[in-house]
Design brief:
Layout: E1 2-6, E2 9-12, E3 20-23, H1 54-62, H2 68-80, E4 84-92, E5 95-100, H3 104-113, H4 115-129, E6 132-139, E7 144-150, E8 155-157, E9 165-168, E10 184-187, H5 194-200, E11 202-207, H6 226-245, E12 251-254, E13 262-263, E14 266-267, H7 270-288, E15 315-318, H8 325-343, H9 347-350, H10 361-374, H11 377-393, E16 399-403, E17 406-408, E18 418-420
Antiparallel strand pairs: 1-2, 2-3, 4-5, 4-16, 6-7, 6-11, 8-9, 9-10, 12-15, 13-14, 17-18
Helix pairs in contact: 2-4, 4-11, 6-8
Length: 426
């Protein structure tokens, strides 16, 4: 028996010989978190979602959606712009500025760590689930750390009582294949202790927003649009099935309950009656459904009674669909606009409201500049965090990484319609 004493205090097995008190200490995520009773988990890691499969659940949701993945890729492209470059702080005309910087060692390190691929991969993790797990690998010959992204789907945070660890298993979230013995446990990267990281050779760091109530895993804003995504998916599935099988219930078919009870003047056994109903229902369903079965004509044979009038028979009554295609289309568009807003893309840039009067070339240019300048800095901050830490550990204290933006210009300025410009740091 469990009795709740207060918001976070519970009495377990009250009245028994081994009654105990359980106090919840807030060691779970408030949103998309595990069970309240996480203390009783068999796992040594913190569950991500009730089934430890929250990223998998969201991926399943969007793989049947028509726009979410495209929106995430658009946001990725906005964040990446022209890629990552290096900049050095210099004082020009009394003002501190960042100017492009290159040297042979940075070029060699960028090649060794495949920097642009790392940046794209990190952005992909960021926009997908808002958590970037980076593997640090020490190279003793070059005396630097190379960076690579560890897929969030196969990475979990160890429970605090087990120390600063990350667990890596290719089958997290897939209970049918998950085996605890396959989990690799890797120490957490310590940004303030270079010698510790060198000694471990391989460590993992975690970059995320510190969302209130989320001590372990962050989540992206588009996860909060789960119902809008489900609605859009249902509209698509509805139209597909409507084309294949006919929209809604189009016919009301009325028949006497004893229609198959007699064969002429002979009563039919109950078992045979059930078979006749079943066969007739199957034939009717096949006849009324499907792409090929449209504009049908139904032929009904009826019998006359002693008064010469037709006896009760099959009566097919067409039903009117009060929900028009325009209404479904409006619901679909509203759902898609909600999804675009949740991803953080302006609807016009997301392509969900074309022809609304704000999609001229000049307006799109202003929106694209706004999107890059005001809706990407926090994303870029978290993607660049580990890159800049790696630079500092290589001794570059006045050099930092930054994204080089793309500025759309008028054709008289640039015949190709775009030119790369330097973003000041981030």
């Amino acid at each position: 028996m469990v009795t709740q004493i207060s918001n976070n205090l519970f009495m377990l097995n009250e009245g028994g010989q081994n009654a105990s008190v359980l106090q919840l200490t807030g060691s779970r995520d408030a949103s998309f978190g595990g069970s309240t009773w996480s203390q009783y988990d068999a796992f040594d890691h913190v569950r991500w979602g009730v089934g430890d499969n929250q990223p998998n659940v969201m991926r399943k949701l969007i793989q049947n959606n028509t726009i979410v993945q495209s929106l995430l890729e658009s946001l990725r492209d906005m964040i990446y712009a022209s890629g990552v470059g290096f900049f050095k702080k210099e004082t020009i005309d009394g003002k501190s500025q960042l100017v492009p910087y290159e040297d042979a060692r940075l070029d060699d390190w960028s090649w060794a760590t495949d920097l642009q691929d790392y940046a794209v991969s990190a952005i992909g993790q960021r926009v997908d689930n808002a958590n970037i797990f980076t593997k640090w690998k020490y190279d003793p010959l070059e005396d630097w750390f190379t960076l690579s992204v560890v897929d969030s789907f196969k990475t979990r945070i160890a429970k605090p009582e087990h120390g600063e660890l990350f667990h890596v298993n290719p089958y997290f979230g897939e209970s049918s294949y998950f085996a605890k013995g396959q989990t690799e446990k890797i120490k957490a990267f310590d940004r303030n202790n270079r010698d510790f990281n060198k000694l471990q050779t391989v460590t993992i760091s975690h970059s995320k927003n510190k969302i209130p109530g989320q001590p372990f895993y962050a989540f992206p804003s588009w996860w909060c649009a789960q119902e809008a995504i489900e609605l859009a998916n249902l509209i698509t599935a509805f139209h597909k099935n409507g084309i294949l099988n006919g929209y809604n219930i189009k016919y009301l078919i009325r028949m006497p309950g004893d229609y198959f009870d007699k064969d002429g003047n002979r009563n039919v056994e109950s078992g045979e009656v059930k078979k006749r109903w079943s066969k007739f229902s199957d034939n009717l369903s096949g006849w009324l459904a499907g792409q090929k079965n449209v504009n049908k004509t139904m032929l009904i044979k009826y019998m006359r009674g002693s008064d010469g009038k037709a006896l009760d028979n099959v009566d097919v009554v067409p039903l009117k669909n009060e929900m028009s295609d325009d209404a479904y289309d409006k619901v679909f568009k509203n759902a898609n606009q909600s999804i675009a807003n949740s991803v953080g893309l302006l609807p016009t840039l997301a392509g969900v409201n074309p022809g609304s009067g704000n999609d001229s070339g000049s307006q799109i240019r202003v929106m694209a500049d706004y999107q890059q300048h005001f809706r990407t800095p926090i994303h870029r901050l978290h993607v660049l965090k580990d890159i800049n830490t790696a630079l500092r550990m290589m001794g570059y204290k006045d050099v930092q990484a930054g994204f080089k933006e793309v500025q759309i210009t008028t054709l008289d300025v640039n015949p190709t319609g775009s030119q790369a410009v330097v973003n000041q740091g981030q």
